[in-house]
Amino acid sequence: MSDLSLELNGLEKSYVTGSSADVAVLRGVDLQLKRGEVVALVAPSGAGKSTLLHIAGLLDQADRGTVRVAGQDMASANETLRTQMRRREVGFVYQFHHLLPEFSALENIVLPQLANGESERAARARGADLLARVGLSERAAHRPAALSGGEQQRVAFCRAMANSPSVLLADEPTGNLDPATSDQVFDVLVDLVAETGLSALIATHNPSLAARMDRVLHLQDGLLV
To answer: Any long-range contacts for 55-61 (C-beta under 8 Å, 24+ apart)?
Structure first.
């Protein structure tokens, strides 16, 4: 098994605008993410960090370049395989938790496992274990509206971890939280990474948060530096 959970090579991506010229967002991005590594992705708004995360997470495709997830080359993968890999090997966390409001914290973690073919009994056991790890066992039956912002985001992390992915991709996961809660949520994330051995690529505007990660990458002019 490779010690790399994510490999990006020569990624290029442009978008067509109303003008005659295309806008190049990624100009040849290379990235290797090792298992157990937490890497910060820092970029100003509009620089392409969300585009990069979506391509890395198999939600979008690059114009050129290759993506390998958990050692598997996705260059020629059809949409069925891309969906399977995305469900099994990639976890997503966003600035807003996007929890389903009509379901409890536990049920929000169970549902993606059921979609991935897991039995309900195993899915509930996995969900309960994850909630215990982030200190939310007593909140398992609460719906998102009854949880604080920090609690909601911790549940979102658990949901992203539900199918034991190889890589976690997070787009400003603490951007909607106050500084103290942001630090608490980040500590939870680091602990989950350490316990599970997955890797995480985290887009953030927070320099103090970025400085606590293993590496800091800056997306500038379509390249990682």
So the answer is: 55/8, 55/11, 55/13, 55/26, 56/6, 56/8, 56/31, 56/167, 56/169, 56/201, 57/86, 57/90, 57/92, 57/169, 58/82, 58/83, 58/85, 58/86, 58/90, 59/86, 60/13
Q: Are 38 and 190 in contact (CB under 8 A)?
A: yes
Q: Are strands 215-220 and 64-69 parallel, antiparallel or unpaired?
A: unpaired
Q: Tokens 């059809």 — which residue?
A: 78
**H-helix segments, 12-168:** 49-56, 79-89, 105-115, 120-133, 149-161
Q: Which long-range contacts (CB under 8 A, 24 or more apart) does 194-197 make?
A: 194/36, 195/133, 196/161, 196/164, 197/35, 197/36
Distance (Å) of CA 54 to CA 67, 93, 95, 196: 11, 12, 14, 23
Q: What is the pLDDT of residues 68-120, one digit of tens each?
A: 988 888 877 888 888 888 888 898 888 777 899 999 999 999 999 998 889 99
For position 19, what pLDDT does the model report? Answer: 62
Residue in this structure with the two tokens 């509009």, named with its chain if needed? 46
Give per-residue pLDDT as tens, 6-23: 999 999 988 877 665 678
